[in-house]
Amino acid sequence: MSNEVFMNYWIGQEPTGPGKSPQLNQIPSYVDIVPLAFVTIDDQYQLSFDFLTQQNSADTIKGWIKEVKANGTKVLLSINSDKFVSLPDVDTFATQVAQAVTDWGVDGIDIDFEPPSANNQLVTVTRAIRQKLVANAIMSSPIYFPWEYYPQSFIRDFAASLDYISTMDYTPYPGYDNTIQLVEAYAKQLGSYEKLLIGMSCMQPSNNNATPLDDVKKLSAWEPTSGQKAGAMLYTFSYDIEARPKGGTGYPDGTYTKTIHDNLP
């Protein structure tokens, strides 16, 4: 059993069922954390669950959440938006997020701020959400190459409220060496590797928007020369199937998920 964390997204836009993408409750129990993609922020700065519930109802997904948690896996709501830095009332929004965590019965929040910018309101919002959540709630965030150039003080202030930061430098995939170089650059900005999950993708292999399986093995097993990474992230369990309309992996269903599990230290 790995001593590192395995985070694996599940996305609500994919049809589920026999011959389609897996249901949330089919995620293996060895996956430690599953963020649900995506909750969004509408023009009135209210959380919207329309994207997440495209193929399955909120009640169905909430039922699956209970099953997944019973297996020991933590579940997060992943909020994807560029509106984190334009919220007119941060405290009200943070309260709304905390209520959503309660209503959905999840274990925390994933903050997917795209496109990113070094805007200090992101730090303020993240701190406010952390303060509204229960003490053992999990908070995470994915980052990619622009973050390498943001002020170190901004990145460290943002990361202070988070348990994990996952990298998503895989669209297009820059290659193994460049991926490691970026991880090392983020670790330098953060001051350590202890919160970093190396991100991998099985999104669209035919368009180079995926991590080759041989590199998945190497990235999962990789460790820095000093310290230890937090673990690995896969985007996404829903795409980890042999064939799908937008491009399957070409491997048996669940191959990427199992490969990461088998190769994490």
What does this structure look like?
The protein is α/β, with parallel strands linked by helices and 265 residues long. It has one domain: TIM Barrel (Alpha-Beta Barrel), CATH 3.20.20.80. 31% of the residues lie in helices and 22% in strands. The protein is built from 7 helices and 11 strands. The protein has helices spanning 58-70, 90-104, 120-132, 152-159, 176-190, 213-221, 255-263, and strands at residues 5-8, 10-11, 33-41, 47-48, 74-81, 108-113, 138-143, 164-167, 196-204, 209-210, 231-235. Strands 1, 2, 3, 4, 5, 6, 7, 8, 9, 10 and 11 form an 11-stranded mixed β-sheet that branches. A hairpin with a 5-residue loop joins β3 and β4. α2 (90-104) crosses α3 (120-132), α3 (120-132) packs parallel to α4 and α6 (213-221) packs parallel to α7 (255-263). The longest helix has 15 residues, at 90-104. It is globular. The mean pLDDT is 97.
Element string (H = helix, E = strand): EEEEHEHEHEHEHEEHEH
Question: What is the global morphology?
Answer: globular
Tally of extended strands? Answer: 11
Rg, rounded, reads 17 Å
CATH topology: TIM Barrel
Structural class: alpha/beta
Question: What is the averaged pLDDT score?
Answer: 97
Query: Could you name the CATH class?
Result: Alpha Beta
Low-confidence stretches: none
End-to-end gap: 8 Å
Strand fraction equals 15-25%
Largest sheet: 11 strands, mixed
The CATH architecture designation is Alpha-Beta Barrel
Find the CATH superfamily.
Answer: Glycosidases
